[in-house]
Design a protein that fits this description.
By secondary structure, the chain is of the alpha+beta class. The chain has one domain: Cytochrome p450 (Orthogonal Bundle). Helix content is 49%, strand content 8%.
Length: 406
Amino acid sequence: MDTTHHFQPTSPHFIANPYPAYTHLREATRAHHTPVTDQWLIPHHHDVSTLLRDRRLGRTYLHRFSHEEFGRTPPPPSHEPFHTLNDHGVLDLEAPDHTRIRRLVAKAFTPRRVEELAPVVERIARRLVGDFVAAGGGDLLSEVAEPLPVTVIAEMLGIPEADRHLLRPWSADICGMYELNPDEETATRAVRASVEFSGYLRGLIRDRRRTPAPDLVSALIAVHDTDGTTLTEQEMISTCVLLLNAGHEATVNTTANGWWTLFRHPDQLALLRADPALLPGAIEELLRYDTPLQLFERWVLDDIEVGGTVVPRGSEVALLFGSANRDPAAFEDPDTFDVRRPPAANRHVTFGAGIHYCLGAPLARLELAASFGLLLREAPRMRLLAEPSWKPGYVIRGLTALHVEI
């Protein structure tokens, strides 16, 4: 099947609504090679969920092969600062390094630490929503959705308030490299942000070594395995950057995209406003219905077979989270947005699965519950002022703004 007519990740029309194209892809076959990005598209929920757990695939191949052995061209030397930063975080590592680093990070970023953040999240959300309501509305994305997770992560890491304005631009520039086929201008911005952010965190780590504080950076410095193993400075830096990037992009876009979904489904919004007990299930439905991370890439380390199609070693698969979350084989009436969908029937893959399951998922749910809950309660007549437009990125898919009136 020629996928070029359906999978068009640079098309504004496709980005605005990729779901009809996903229907065509699912109906055709289970694995499609697309010349658009030289990837194998995997659109079915069962296959996506299974391959997320399959160790014949990896986020990297460098633990087993050189670039040349794997048939890939090494990145340009000028991109090295970005790859040094990116390649030492748990998201882009495989065992044994991934196992060691994730175990150490999990000792610092514990469920108890997330639980202790609940009043912090509530306090920040109350301030942001209170100011937003008092102003009569504005851009919900830039005034509530973005600052909430960035501020939470900044407080968690112990970044002084005066420096927090640096974080979002750094994160946005680095995340540009996660889009499909980023151009050299995007790479240049990502490299500059990687150098600046790494330098900043190196100074913060140096300060915390001298004077520990009750923050995550100090905890990452102190954590160790039974054999005395600790995180290297680069691993700590990469972990902090990953917590910011992965920890807020999904929350920002789920918040803005989610309200756009609710405005387009006024009956569901009315149900949610009438019964706050529906909120936890509604958040899972928002995460499923309009997935903030549409695609997750993996390298094929050994030949695999998907639906009778052999995907050879050296290939890259694109696990289509957005398609998997609308698969009728996994969800009843998948194209229907239903805030009353039972959680047991909502096995979305938005946070991934297997060893790379999102470490920050509990924090993201905490932030989403706080902001949606407060806006539903404090702005019961909030309405959309103008239909929003979409950013040009497809992988991390979000709106440019969401202007509302209270």
